[in-house]
Design a protein that fits this description.
Low-confidence stretches: 1-27
Radius of gyration: 35 Å
Number of strands: 0
């Protein structure tokens, strides 16, 4: 009886199917994912990212690829915030939501996608404001130059008026 239960348990655990209906869960990919997680926990982020990219590049398997997509997106999001390069993590998270909609990782991705999109929108607005500010700074500089030139012209006009009055005071020679 114990042998039958053990065989049944092993058969059921070996027949876990992926989204693509691959039939048997690829244990190598699962161990690759686990290895990537260990590498990340050990502080070897670049190696973990490389391993996760390898898992994601292969044919999709539910429970493996979805988690790898999520973890890879988080890693890239961390470095992308500094560089304002949020496009790649967004693409991966949207892929996760589209290809694995019932995955718990897809549900976790939903608020991240919203935050990334809002951040991108705000970054675009900031770039527009910075450009407008630069244009205004240039206009301020031009305005300052025009004000200075205007003052100089007023001084010149006053001098000319003074000279004109002096000329009128002098007797004319015939």
């Amino acid at each position: 009886m114990k042998k039958i239960a053990l065989i049944l348990f092993m058969a059921l655990s070996a027949c876990t199917t992926g989204r693509e209906g691959s039939g048997i869960l690829n244990l190598d990919r699962n161990s690759d994912l686990a290895h990537a997680v260990r590498l990340y926990e050990e502080g070897k982020e670049q190696e973990a990212e490389k391993r996760l990219k390898e898992v994601v590049a292969q044919k999709g398997v539910a429970g493996v690829t979805d988690e790898a997509l999520f973890r890879l997106s988080l890693m890239q999001l961390k470095s992308g915030i500094v560089r304002e390069d949020l496009e790649q993590p967004l693409i991966r998270l949207e892929t996760l939501q589209r290809n694995y909609p019932s995955s718990p990782w897809a549900r976790l991705a939903a608020p991240l996608v919203a935050v990334i999109k809002e951040t991108q929108r705000q970054n675009r607005e900031i770039r527009i404001l910075v450009r407008e500010n630069r244009e205004l700074s240039g206009l301020r500089g031009q305005n300052f130059s025009l004000i200075k030139e205007n003052k100089e012209l007023k001084k010149t006009i006053e001098r000319l008026k003074y000279l004109d009055m002096e000329l009128e005071k002098k007797p004319r020679r015939r």
